[in-house]
Amino acid sequence: MSLKQSLGKVTIVDFWASWCGPCRRENPNVVAIYKEFHSKGLNIIGVSLDQDASKWKEAIAKDKLTWNQVSNLKGWEEPIAAQYKVEAIPATFILDASGKVVARDLRGAELRTKIEELLAK
């Protein structure tokens, strides 16, 4: 899966892991935003810092994460996380339609507001 496939839409790149409490607590908010805005052009790519495939897949199912999920199951050695210089999770990068990072690490109402703003353009 390529990030380039997402360009032309607003995209959230969401770094998380099944063992990350703050990540899991934010997931219901992200699920609600995805349900509301996916049909309007929002795309999300989940990048997991898990090492255990079964725990990762179990968390995806339990939290109802229906968007694309990727992981090399290398934990903090995840190459995509290194590319984005992720040092703590949850970490979110909001990309505009051209693929430019326009916001980072927004949660809850702030994330919703930014997505609404970007999709209104």
Automatic annotation (TrEMBL):
<protein>
    <recommendedName>
        <fullName>Thioredoxin domain-containing protein</fullName>
    </recommendedName>
</protein>
<keyword id="KW-0201">Cytochrome c-type biogenesis</keyword>
<dbReference type="InterPro" id="IPR036249">
    <property type="entry name" value="Thioredoxin-like_sf"/>
</dbReference>
<keyword id="KW-1015">Disulfide bond</keyword>
<feature type="domain" description="Thioredoxin">
    <location>
        <begin position="1"/>
        <end position="121"/>
    </location>
</feature>
<dbReference type="InterPro" id="IPR000866">
    <property type="entry name" value="AhpC/TSA"/>
</dbReference>
<keyword id="KW-0676">Redox-active center</keyword>
<dbReference type="InterPro" id="IPR017937">
    <property type="entry name" value="Thioredoxin_CS"/>
</dbReference>
<dbReference type="Pfam" id="PF00578">
    <property type="entry name" value="AhpC-TSA"/>
</dbReference>
<dbReference type="InterPro" id="IPR050553">
    <property type="entry name" value="Thioredoxin_ResA/DsbE_sf"/>
</dbReference>
<dbReference type="InterPro" id="IPR013766">
    <property type="entry name" value="Thioredoxin_domain"/>
</dbReference>
